């Protein structure tokens, strides 16, 4: 599709921001274009303010943003180089758009610490077709009844309600010459609580990746409200891919859209990238959040702890499922995960599909 000439700069500029490590989602780009159209900008300050508001530019990066803005829209040279030594550590947020993504081979660290590494090693994953196991079929049968629910603002008629429906009572009275035989009562409706899955697809989780993806697909099909993101050295939203009914087709789509399967591990940066995009972070508000990861963080522990703290304040409950906890003698081995424990509702095993299904179905009972 060819963009109108007047629109092209406002689509290209967010792409430049992404190339420099700003987590800008496609919807934010559309919001920026719409905001500029609504403003009918009188000068460049209107465009700058619209960009900062709609692209969620963090305050600490305004200097870098202004340099890019002046370079692109005003053609001014940069006073200082925006490149820095830590640029490769910036983690981007991705949402599949159907466009092809170039995959380059990255350097792999070979240090002790199992298979965890912070280096970005991009690769695709091909999933082998397989039959849904008994655990997934059980999850599909019990999801509507056993998944956690929350009280909504709407009300419905109930024999054991807690509020008289005065409007209905008055209608009855009008029909019966002012006589009311039964007082109609209502109670608050309930709806299924949103579930947010944050799935580690790094190299240290290679053996569990297929199981977690099949679990995520089954849960997406069975529940009303599920959002799923993968992270390794990138953050990728795969909710749309998992809504494809056929499991094998859905996983093929996921394998084609996630570029960092079996790569490095930067959990803290991934969670911070998730929280920095308001539309993504809003998915965690009031949700049951499940982090499926071994917790072998290779980045700054403080980054992960801060991200988990923020996430725990947003969500209804935060559970960390790790395959390492299948060992009865397991204790968190990394400083980051140990410091995260006060903010977690549980740190439980997540090594098999059966365990994952059992845990998510038990959330209502454990709350």
UniProtKB/TrEMBL annotation:
<dbReference type="InterPro" id="IPR008912">
    <property type="entry name" value="Uncharacterised_CoxE"/>
</dbReference>
<protein>
    <submittedName>
        <fullName>VWA domain-containing protein</fullName>
    </submittedName>
</protein>
<dbReference type="InterPro" id="IPR011195">
    <property type="entry name" value="UCP010256"/>
</dbReference>
<feature type="domain" description="VWFA">
    <location>
        <begin position="192"/>
        <end position="357"/>
    </location>
</feature>
<dbReference type="Pfam" id="PF05762">
    <property type="entry name" value="VWA_CoxE"/>
</dbReference>
<dbReference type="InterPro" id="IPR002035">
    <property type="entry name" value="VWF_A"/>
</dbReference>
<dbReference type="InterPro" id="IPR036465">
    <property type="entry name" value="vWFA_dom_sf"/>
</dbReference>
């Amino acid at each position: 599709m060819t963009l109108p000439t007047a629109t092209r700069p406002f689509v290209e500029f967010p792409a430049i921001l992404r190339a420099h490590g700003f987590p800008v989602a496609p919807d934010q780009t559309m919001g920026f274009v719409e905001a500029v159209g609504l403003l009918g900008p009188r000068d460049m300050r209107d465009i700058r303010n619209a960009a900062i508001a709609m692209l969620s530019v963090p305050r600490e990066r305004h200097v870098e943003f202004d340099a890019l803005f002046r370079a692109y829209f005003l053609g001014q040279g940069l006073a200082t180089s925006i490149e820095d030594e830590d640029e490769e550590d910036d983690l981007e947020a991705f949402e599949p758009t159907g466009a092809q993504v170039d995959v380059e081979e990255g350097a792999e660290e070979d240090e002790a610490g199992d298979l965890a590494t912070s280096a970005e090693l991009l690769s695709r994953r091909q999933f082998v077709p397989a039959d849904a196991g008994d655990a997934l079929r059980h999850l599909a049968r019990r999801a509507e009844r056993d998944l956690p629910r929350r009280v909504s603002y709407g009300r419905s008629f109930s024999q054991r309600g807690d509020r008289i429906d005065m409007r209905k009572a008055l209608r009855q009275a009008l029909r019966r010459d002012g006589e009311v035989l039964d007082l109609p009562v209502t109670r608050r409706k309930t709806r299924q609580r949103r579930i947010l899955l944050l799935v580690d697809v790094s190299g240290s989780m290679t053996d569990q990746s297929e199981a977690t993806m099949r679990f995520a697909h089954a849960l997406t099909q069975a529940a009303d409200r599920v959002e799923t993101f993968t992270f390794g050295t990138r953050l990728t939203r795969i909710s749309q891919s998992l809504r494809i009914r056929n499991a094998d087709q859905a996983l093929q789509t996921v394998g084609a859209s996630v570029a960092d399967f079996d790569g490095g591990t930067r959990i803290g940066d991934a969670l911070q990238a998730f929280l920095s995009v308001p539309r993504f972070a809003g998915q965690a508000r009031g949700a049951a959040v499940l982090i499926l990861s071994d917790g072998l963080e290779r980045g700054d522990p403080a980054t992960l702890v801060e991200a988990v703290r923020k996430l725990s304040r947003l969500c209804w409950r935060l559970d960390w499922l790790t395959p390492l906890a299948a060992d009865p003698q397991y204790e968190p081995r990394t400083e980051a995960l140990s410091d995260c424990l006060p903010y977690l509702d549980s740190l439980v095993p997540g090594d098999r599909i059966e365990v994952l299904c059992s845990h998510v179905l038990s959330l209502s009972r454990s709350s």
